[in-house]
């Protein structure tokens, strides 16, 4: 019998994204799956139930997950909802299984084969499945728009009858996927943009987007293309130079992260005190504690005339395109698990094996000779 796929209606507060679109429903059906979508699942992303029906899906009531073999979601379902999944079902989404004990216990007790997409190895082959990248792109874009909205100034240089307005100076802290999108967006708005990162290879990437690389004299390239944690000396040097530089900056967008750790604290309270009144900091790292010491996740605060915003779940603010990208990422990953319309796990495929949680048990060694 063909695999039964269920697309969940997200239940987290403020979450507007959805894990499948009519486009990916059609692709799943073409791969032999029977797709059901929880009624209203797409509304936050502008997708009606009818659009899913037209794409060949069925509609499901909100508590109908009990018969699905493969459940697709964006954020982790609550532990109680996991408890209603079919024993041994497969769950694909951004699941952070270890971040919540009740969730991990629920996944284990139902024998759920979970594929938390944040665990996907970031290899070239995985790029089309990389939800961290696709969603970070939207977050970086929105962070700059929020900054432009909060800043009491124009971003571009303007020559007006009332004289010339100088362009805003924008600094992007961290030039990963979100940071590079932030640089590109701030440039499109006409700002003078600088970026910095501890990975030296970002210099070329920042410059290729029309930004200037801010050299703070610290390099911390780590494994797998990610940053490593800085030593105390490196951090002190970075902070001394940054404090000086921030005095002349109008807008800071923070995006620095180290995987699996709280966000590095880069902009201290003392640095904020040295910034000009009317400056703005948008801290996209608020989700993991923030890059600025004064950031309060989910809030906008003001300190000495400097506005500090700590927005959460920025990808959801652009739910239409974020869902379009997320759903394609999910489909591309799920395609690895579907063989002739049934689920099958190729543990020799590192994308499948390394993403799975719990990790698959190693194959028993076969007796030689
Ligand atoms: P991330 O969200 O973990 O981190 C964001 C950025 O913060 C990184 O560039 C990191 O170097 C930087 N950072 C960390 N500590 C810092 C500090 N103290 N000061 C300044 N900056 C600091 O990373 P990400 O955006 O998800 O991706 C990081 C890298 O992985 C990028 O180079 C990206 O191109 C690469 N990547 C590769 C693939 C692929 O090959 N398939 C896919 C996605 C990402």
Question: Would you give an account of this structure?
Answer:
The protein is α/β, with parallel strands linked by helices and 369 residues long. The protein folds into two domains: 3-119 and 319-355, 3-Layer(aba) Sandwich (Rossmann fold), CATH 3.40.50; 139-312, NAD(P)-binding Rossmann-like Domain (Rossmann fold). The chain has twelve helices and 17 strands. The strands form four sheets. The protein has a seven-stranded mixed sheet with strand order 11-10-9-12-13-15-14, with helices on one face. Strands 3-2-1-4-5-6 form a six-stranded parallel sheet. The model has no long low-confidence stretch (mean pLDDT 94). The structure holds nicotinamide-adenine-dinucleotide (NAD).
Neighbour order of strands in the largest sheet: 11-10-9-12-13-15-14
What's the end-to-end separation, in Å?
39 Å
Shape annotation: globular
Instruction: Round the Cα radius of gyration to an integer and report it.
Output: 23 Å
Proportion of β residues?
15-25%
Number of domains: 2
CATH fold-level assignment of the largest domain: Rossmann fold
Within CATH, the superfamily of the largest domain carries the name NAD(P)-binding Rossmann-like Domain
Helical proportion, percent range = 25-40%
Q: How does the helix and strand content classify structurally?
A: alpha/beta
Architecture of the largest domain in CATH?
A: 3-Layer(aba) Sandwich
> What ligands can be seen in this structure?
nicotinamide-adenine-dinucleotide
Largest sheet: 7 strands, mixed
